[in-house]
Design brief:
The structure holds 2 protein chains of 2 kinds.
Chain A (H helix, E strand, L loop, with lengths): L2 E5 L3 E2 L5 E8 L7 E8 L3 E9 L4 E3 L7 E6 L4 E6 L8 E8 L9 E4 L3 E5 L2
Parallel strand pairs in A: 2-11
Antiparallel strand pairs in A: 1-3, 3-8, 4-5, 4-9, 5-6, 7-8, 9-10, 9-11
Chain B lengths: L3 E4 L2 E4 L5 E7 L7 E6 L6 E5 L3 E2 L7 E6 L2 E6 L9 E6 L6 E2 L3 E5 L1
Parallel strand pairs in B: 2-11
Antiparallel strand pairs in B: 1-3, 3-8, 4-5, 4-9, 5-6, 7-8, 9-10, 9-11
Classes of the chains: A mainly beta, B mainly beta.
Chain lengths: ~120, ~110
């Protein structure tokens, strides 16, 4: 079955760029929107943005200026870069698929296990 | 951003109870609402989408209702496996937003 796995540095220094990868196995990213969602005890679940396998993106306006997402069909992989991080970006980051192919407008049906990122010097 | 407000934030219940969790959207979101269950250390799990459609593999004791600004998740006969945190989420507007969560604890 299709599985999603996030990977990242674990610890990032303040003002640096956070880079995360999402590997999809057991199925192709073709035809699907994938999202990045983060979770903190204080702010709960926060949607970061969405990317289609072709590269079309939709970002959360509150993070738009610091964010970049990409998709690599050859590696079946999605990527997230978040610049100028602060302690407020400390969170568990999830890679999540949208239910139903070719649609951005859907619930989130397939979640990775999440990767914890701490912003600290 | 559309605000999703859940109530209650937490409550205690017993196995076999019927429980309702409500979610109110700050503006109309049609039926573009999903419900998720999350257990400690795990990712959220999709239970209901399109306000009332049961996701494949989810037990039929879970059901959802509502449209517009008011939504309800019902668990008809609470099982021990159901003690968890539940979230509503709208996928009508940008950004997508979640409720703050409702923790269901064993009485």
């Amino acid at each position: 079955q299709v599985q999603v796995q996030e990977s990242g540095p674990g610890l990032v220094e303040p003002s640096a760029t956070l880079s995360l990868k999402c590997n999809v196995s057991g199925g192709s990213i073709r035809g699907y929107y994938f999202n990045w969602i983060r979770q903190t005890p204080g702010k709960g679940l926060e949607w970061i943005g969405s990317i289609f396998y072709s590269g079309t993106t939709v970002y959360n306006p509150s993070l738009d200026s610091r964010m970049s997402m990409s998709a690599d069909m050859s590696k079946n992989q999605l990527s997230l870069d978040l610049t100028s991080v602060t302690a407020a970006d400390t969170a568990v980051y999830y890679c999540v698929r949208v239910l139903g192919s070719s649609s951005w407008s859907g619930a989130f049906d397939l979640w990775g296990q999440g990767t914890m990122v701490t912003v600290s010097s | 951003a559309i605000r999703m407000t859940q109530s209650p934030s937490s409550f205690s219940a017993s196995t076999g109870d019927r429980i309702n969790i409500t979610c109110r959207a700050s503006q109309g979101v049609s039926s573009y609402v999903a419900w998720y269950q999350q257990k400690p250390g795990k990712a959220p799990r999709l239970l209901i989408h399109a306000a009332s459609t049961l996701q494949s593999g989810v037990p039929s004791r879970f059901s959802g209702s509502g449209s517009g600004t008011g939504f309800t998740l019902t668990i008809s006969c609470l099982q021990s496996d159901d003690f968890a945190i539940y979230y509503c989420q709208q996928y009508y507007g940008n950004p997508r937003t979640f409720g703050q969560g409702t923790q269901v604890e064993l009485k």
